[in-house]
Write a structure and sequence with these properties.
By secondary structure, this protein is an alpha/beta fold. It has one domain: HUPs (Rossmann fold), CATH 3.40.50.620. It contains 8 helices and 4 strands; from the N terminus they run E-H-H-E-H-E-H-H-E-H-H-H. Strands 3-2-1-4 form a 4-stranded parallel beta sheet, sandwiched between helices. Helix 5 packs across helix 6. The radius of gyration is 19 Å and the shape is globular.
């Protein structure tokens, strides 16, 4: 059985992947490394969610350092990039490089990430970065395929996992907050328009 180090971004994403890797005959060890997650309370919620998955599927998990200062340094100058742009690629690369460092020390055969299970993440870009870091040791996958994301949501509901509503970084949260405010304003305007029509 080959050993794989699985970078975990949150419990929900891990929920749809561990069994699949086991079906492919991999022995899984988790690696929770996400210095991009802000604030610290949000980080704690996602870590607790990941621990629930670890307990449910019974596999070991390493917690990486929460070095948020390094993360802010890494993405400096990209704060205004749109979601899914250059900032995200830098963030993916930072997390995958750190995963590879643990991979080299732990006697694993491969490493991979839960990031590709999200319908909001570009799996091709994540896999490209993985290949760039370590072409023959990165396990390329698009875990959202074969209903991977659907399964993750199903398991997360069964285990009552915390489900976040933004990527993790403070900049993605601002983007989501702006989208929500725009939607709220639209609903208010639609409500007022309907009242006028009803009159």
């Amino acid at each position: 059985m080959k050993k794989v180090l699985l970078h975990i971004c949150c419990g929900v994403c891990a929920a749809g992947i561990v069994e699949r890797l086991r079906e492919e005959n991999y022995e899984v060890t988790g690696f929770f490394y996400n210095p991009n997650i802000h604030p610290k309370e949000e980080y704690a919620k996602r870590l607790e969610s990941a621990r629930k998955i670890v307990n449910h599927f019974n596999f070991p998990m390493i917690e990486g350092k929460y070095n948020k200062k390094d993360w802010f340094y890494e993405i400096k100058g990209l704060e205004k990039e749109p979601e899914g742009g250059k900032r995200c690629s830098k963030c993916f690369k930072m997390r995958l490089k750190e995963t590879m460092e643990y991979f080299k020390e732990g006697g694993f055969d491969f490493f991979t990430t839960t990031l590709t299970i999200s319908p909001h993440k570009n799996a091709a870009e994540i896999n490209r970065i993985g290949r760039q870091i370590s072409e023959f040791k990165f396990l390329e996958r698009d875990f959202k395929k074969k209903e991977g994301f659907k399964k993750a949501i199903q398991i997360s509901k069964e285990l009552d996992l915390y489900r976040q509503n933004y990527c993790g970084c403070v900049f993605s949260r601002r983007t989501d907050d702006r989208k929500q405010k725009t939607e709220d304003r639209k609903q208010k305007i639609d409500g007022r328009r309907q009242k006028i029509i009803d009159c």
